[in-house]
Write a structure and sequence with these properties.
Layout lengths: L5 H24 L5 H24 L8 H26 L7 H20 L9 H22 L1 H7 L8 H25 L3 H19 L1 H6 L15 H18 L9 H8 L3 H11 L4 H19 L5 H8 L4 H12 L3 H6 L3
C-alpha cells in the first residue's frame, strides 16, 4: 500500500533526516570522544536506516521499490538491539575504553546479517525473508530485554520515595522506553498498520530532543552516571564507623519520626552520598531503608507502649513515625510477633 499524503511524508521523513544528522554528529564530530557517544551515534544511525527503509516502502509504489534498500533497512534491525544494549551497559558501567569482546560481538553479528544477505538476497529470495525477518525481530527483542535488565536498579530507584534518579539515569530510562516503543510499534505494524513505526520514531526522537533542550539536562545527560555503589565495597572498619555515626544521627535527629524522610536527608547529615548510605544499609547491615526506619519506629513505639498510658494505640503509632494505623499494626506484628495491644497488656 502506498501513501501520498505530503504532510504525512514530512512528519515521517523529517525524523529520519534529523536522526541521520544526529548520528553523524555523535559518530564523527562530537567533541567528547567517549565510548557512550559512539554507541549512541551507532544506535541512532541504525534506527534511522530502519525507519528510512519504512518511509521508502510506504511512499513508493510496490513495483518501483528497490528490494536492496529494503534489505539494508531490515538488516539494520539486526544490530539495533545490541547497539542499545552496549550503549546502556557502557553508560551504567562508565566504560572508558571500547572492550575488545564488544567489538568481536558486534563484528560477529554484522557478519551474520551480511552473510545472510549475500546468500539469500531480498531481490532474488523475497520468500526467504518471510522467515529471516521474524528472526531479525526476535534478536532485536532479546537485546531490548537484556537492556532492560541492565537498568533494573534505575527503574527501582525511579519508583522509590527515598532515592532520586540523576539526569543521566533518567536519560537512559527514556532511551530504553523509546526503543521499546519503536520495537512494539513495528511488531504491531508487522500485522496491522506499517506506518505506525515511522510515526513512533519521529515522536520518540523529538521527545528526546525536547528533553535535551533544557540546559541542565544537556549539560549532564552525556556525562558519567554515579558509579554503582556495589563496585566499591565499604571496608569493615569504615562500615563500623559509618554505622556508629548513623546511630548517633538517628537518635539525635529522630529522623524516624518524620513520615516523609528520604534516604538523601540522612545521607546529607552524615556527609556521604545516598548511594553510599544505601550500600551500607543493604550490603553491610542487610536491611532496606524502609526496614531500617521501621526498626527505630518499633523501638519508639515499644517505649511509648510501656511508659505512656495517655496515648491511644493509634496516637502512639503516629508519634513513633508510622504514616497510618494499619501500617503501624502490620509492621509491629511482623517484627515483634504481637499486636501493639497484646504487647501493651504485658506492661499494664
Amino acid at each position: 500500500m502506498k501513501f501520498d499524503n505530503p504532510l504525512l511524508f514530512f512528519v515521517c521523513a523529517i525524523g529520519v533526516f534529523n536522526g541521520f544528522l544526529a548520528s553523524f554528529y555523535f559518530l564523527f564530530f562530537s567533541k567528547e570522544k567517549r565510548v557512550q557517544n559512539f554507541l549512541f551515534g551507532l544506535l541512532l544511525l541504525l534506527l534511522s536506516m530502519r525507519i528510512g527503509k519504512s518511509v521508502y516502502a510506504i511512499f513508493t509504489d510496490r513495483a518501483e521499490r528497490d528490494l536492496l534498500i529494503l534489505q539494508i533497512g531490515l538488516s539494520a534491525c539486526f544490530l539495533i538491539g545490541v547497539s542499545l544494549y552496549y550503549y546502556i551497559k557502557s553508560s551504567v558501567e562508565n566504560t572508558r575504553v571500547f572492550p575488545r569482546s564488544w567489538k568481536i560481538h558486534l563484528m560477529i553479528l554484522t557478519s551474520i546479517i551480511i552473510i545472510i544477505g549475500v546468500i539469500k538476497p531480498y531481490r532474488t529470495n523475497p520468500l526467504a525473508w518471510n522467515y529471516i525477518v521474524p528472526f531479525i525481530y526476535s534478536v532485536w527483542g532479546i537485546y531490548i530485554l537484556l537492556s532492560g535488565f541492565l537498568i533494573k536498579s534505575i527503574f527501582q530507584k525511579l519508583f522509590s520515595k527515598h532515592e532520586k534518579c540523576t539526569t543521566s539515569e533518567l536519560w537512559l530510562v527514556a532511551i530504553f522506553i523509546g526503543n521499546l516503543l519503536i520495537y512494539l510499534a513495528y511488531i504491531i505494524g508487522y500485522f496491522y498498520l506499517y506506518l505506525i513505526g515511522t510515526i513512533t520514531f519521529s515522536v520518540v526522537f523529538y521527545g528526546l530532543l525536547i528533553f535535551l533542550l533544557f540546559k541542565n539536562n544537556r549539560d549532564n545527560v552525556f556525562k558519567d552516571i554515579p558509579e554503582k555503589y556495589a563496585s566499591k565495597k565499604i571496608t569493615s572498619t569504615e562500615a563500623k564507623q559509618l554505622t556508629e555515626a548513623l546511630q548517633d544521627v538517628m537518635l539525635k535527629n529522630q529522623f524516624y519520626k518524620n513520615t516523609n524522610v528520604k534516604l538523601n536527608d540522612i545521607a546529607e547529615v552524615l556527609d556521604i552520598s545516598s548511594h553510599k548510605l544505601s550500600q551500607l544499609l543493604n550490603d553491610n547491615l542487610g536491611k532496606s531503608f524502609a526496614l531500617f526506619l521501621n526498626e527505630y519506629r518499633i523501638e519508639e513505639a515499644k517505649r511509648l507502649l510501656k511508659d505512656n498510658n495517655q496515648y491511644t494505640l493509634e496516637a502512639i503509632g503516629f508519634e513513633a513515625g508510622f504514616s497510618s494505623k494499619s501500617t503501624f499494626y502490620a509492621t509491629f506484628k511482623k517484627v515483634i510477633g504481637q499486636t501493639p495491644s497484646e504487647f501493651k497488656k504485658q506492661y499494664s
